[in-house]
């Protein structure tokens, strides 16, 4: 084994002239916007091949359709039928949540699913509407235009919001800004989903208890207040039916969770509830205590709605807000879910490409009377478990929805509201993940706080505020990471050339007269002052303990980047140490850091002879200048320990 | 020299049980809020000594006064007189800039200077008003209440803003939130000051050309438009006098810059201009083209203004905005300047203590008819060059101002506006630092952009927008640092045990079958996806080049922290590599990272035997499992190279 010996064959720091600006800019842009290197596959292709690959890249259906066969279709057909049976009750339920006509929910599983089947790159995502975004749309647009007083205008604004969402999502994808979605942390989403589930469940008390006067606010306090204020409207018949449905749905879910092969039981259950509910409503339609039903579902495909898009300046702030916030949440849900199923199969999902697909899905959808759609978790999981092989299962669902719209829609007019409430509640209860929150609590308290902030913010203030507070906290943490980077004092491990954190390895001890410090994370304006203070504090501490410090060795292995303020900080430290007659040495500066040090003449100030490739060399060099006896004493002490 | 040999005496990763939550929380809070360890000096004191030290800590005058002697006083007296002669013209000028009566400018160098002398911890800071903040106050409050239409209300709001600034600054100091000021980067301040200097200079064209109709906007376009629209009001007499003054002032500054011993020439010059201007105005007072003067300066000390503080809900948003923005800028200027002079003398300034001092200075000031004060650069530099020894020079200035207010104030009524304009312009021209901007351009293009954004934002949009855009860009950069941490592929340097970046050291090459990767910066939610993609890309690249990858070694030396998403990312990578039959190994996890890995059971998943203390050990261990011949081939190849 070759060993490193500085005196025999000194390894030098590479002081080549800095790379050109163009080179670094190109490499940075690539890392920022194309970390997954999507154009790799085009490199060694001829022009025609390139054109073909480009088409396949942007329109994935051309990639999988040529290889499609009957065996795959059998799987996709089954999966498609399963998700269609789920899409009908979910579509109607979530449309009620968004306070738009229930038929829109059915429309929204037809056109967007077609678009996604052509453009989507994930095999498992099943397109549909989602509860959280539906409520958020109702909340945001409802604060400007009441869905009761002016339902037409309200509906048009919902279409407009979907259009804006689509443009926003597609733009993010084209601009390769998938990075934005990365800033919605897992903790935020866990808390947000939990909080949303709580308020949606509470809202369903309206349907479950048959209350007709209700609040438009979404927070827990207002909703509970509205429920109990209208005690006199509670109908026990509705409540009993609703509880029965709910218990049935929860039981089927429990069954599927215990025996994954029975996944279709829970997938079919909502449809069963709807059918049972319809029958019940139909036979009790002439009674005194008739059950409230959805009502009014016409036959026919999606009418064109492009002419209804409303960009009036008065409503634009609301639609923009609704469009962008729901757009981000929908992307986070859709992409995260596509990705997690792809990982199970060891495949990759290109987040930016998915954004473009979701974007076009919503743009086209909003022109055909659809509101916001994405890849909801429940539907996608059912799709995956049903064994779908390609995006063709979405195609099957689209055809299923088309047939439903053409022939069966009026049958669903009898769907009782209480059945929808039960379906929504059972779906929502699955989104409250206490184990997840407990895991966060155990591993990382700050992540737990971020999660709690989203949960309580959504539950007690409002959905958008809760989300923003939580994202703000997460960003604050990211900034704290960079403002207060962990630095540590290094000591030499016995019988090795390794220098490690003295706090982590108690047996590591610093050579006398030398203070070895490892800095982590980029050094720049937000942490320059801190790093200076921290270094000075270590020197004071050592001096306070009676140890004279003659050399400060800064290990920059963990410093990946530096800005002008960071270099000034190092220069200041150098100046302050010079006054104290302490020598400063730099160990292992990374490429970018060394380049900036050279450009800013810091290398000339400190001298090339003070920059070393490894800690051992720097320590050796320190002793060459120090009194020799000191080193001997240390070596003897070391061998004594060994 | 002891060498590290893994087979003889293996150094082990320290798998001690994680530290308690309380311990880590305490240490984090200390690093975040008390990085300079201010209570170190109290540790080994008796109760009485502690009380004394505490008093000295919070009221620094008790620290330096007991050691004060006549020799120090002689220096402070000289410095105090010098800054008094600067304070009078500056006070009047900047009060005009803030559109308040000029006497307020004189008041503002009296009471705050007294307070700072007692509470301030910097020896060099000289208290006074600043141009940028004065203009910003006029801009913000003037947009709500016109200083012309209702000067009394306007003045009261200015006092209120100063009060809010004081409370805000003191609160930041008490809460140890000095960290906030760290987020105003040097690049932002350079650009902001430059932009402010430009618009203030242009505004002075009003006084210099004697224009009486003018705009209240501050951006370049509006100001130039106002100047040229009112061409008919230009007075050549005023312009000639103004230019003469300006040339004189710039010449004295040039002289002082060339010969630092003549610093007093440029310090006295503004006073000379004022006196000359007064004489000129006095003797031409009966002419037709009389020169516009300040007018109306009464004898007498600061009247009490606490009863005028106006917290009316109608004006509160404006005063809050003005108070907080100017508070941050004033702090950044005052603290940065105190710090940079302290560094020259190898002393320390406690930023949080300074904030408290500035805060009280403004609170007390606002109750005694003063507006916003801080430690302006020009005055502080003069104070330092005059040889001040303690904060007593501020005391001398306060006494000088008191005498001026009591006896000399009416004499300054004749100060011509054109003289003030010349003084402001000459001061502002010194704040445009092109060399600084050029340095930023050379060293770091992104810093240069941040600087330009502040400069053009201030010059062409508005002062607060310019500041916010620039701070936003700087934050974006900080977030990009954490979202896209630099990672690199490591190779072994010939004839050593060192593994270094293959891009930086061309001679470093990876052992066959092994992909060694060094990650930098914390791994967490914002960069988890990126890191996963990056690792997979390296594997694909190696495989694309015909090199089979059998082991992936992740060097976590530079990873100072990790959150739950980060650990999930590592677990995902582990899972994906397992599918590809690639082994993953972790090298040198830091204390906090290892703790989280243990808490989240990641260590159990990967196995303790896959976590190594150094790269060499991990490579060795990889070969123990690999085919032996491969390694031999590599070793032979290596020795061939050497």
TrEMBL record, chains A, B:
Any transmembrane segments, and where? 72-88, 100-119, 125-142, 154-177, 183-202, 238-256, 262-283, 322-343, 355-374, 418-434, 446-476
The record's section on SUPFAM superfamilies has: SpoIIaa-like
**Listed GO MF terms:** secondary active sulfate transmembrane transporter activity
CDD domains per the UniProt record, alphabetical:
STAS_SulP_like_sulfate_transporter (cd07042)
Subcellular localization, as worded in the UniProt entry: Membrane
Query: According to the UniProt record, where is the region Disordered?
Result: 1-20
According to the UniProt record, one GO cellular component term is: membrane
Residue ranges, compositional bias (Polar residues):
1-17
Identify the main location: membrane
Its protein name is Sulfate transporter 3.5 isoform X1
Query: Which species is this UniProt entry from?
Result: Populus alba x Populus x berolinensis
